[in-house]
């Protein structure tokens, strides 16, 4: 069907290698994009940051069909997609 996987994280770009290593160790071998926060975005709250990034994806032609996240900031805001899937995370909460 031509699905492309895009990972959108609130982690900083300084952690790029760690995030890629974690994804590969979890079984992901390829993806379209891994979007991480730039230093200039460090003060942007998660919900606003992720909404802005999803808006940029839609603007360049992506359609967000599924959106999976463990934080409400992953699933709220704008351009959340056709379906959202909330995963439990008892370890931490981002407001």
TrEMBL record:
- The source's superkingdom equals Eukaryota
Q: Where does the UniProt annotation place the signal sequence?
A: none
Note the Pfam families from the entry. Acid_phosphat_B
Which InterPro entries does this one have? Acid_phosphat_B-like, HAD_sf
Spell out the protein name for this chain: Acid phosphatase
The source organism is Ilex paraguariensis
């Amino acid at each position: 069907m031509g699905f492309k996987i895009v990972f959108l994280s609130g982690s900083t770009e300084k952690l790029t290698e760690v995030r890629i290593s974690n994804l590969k160790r979890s079984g992901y071998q390829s993806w379209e994009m891994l979007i991480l926060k730039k230093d200039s975005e460090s003060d942007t709250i998660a919900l606003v940051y992720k909404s802005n990034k999803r808006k940029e994806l839609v603007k360049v032609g992506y359609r967000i069909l599924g959106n999976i996240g463990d934080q409400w900031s992953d699933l709220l805001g704008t351009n959340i997609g056709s379906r959202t899937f909330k995963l439990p995370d008892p370890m931490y909460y981002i407001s």
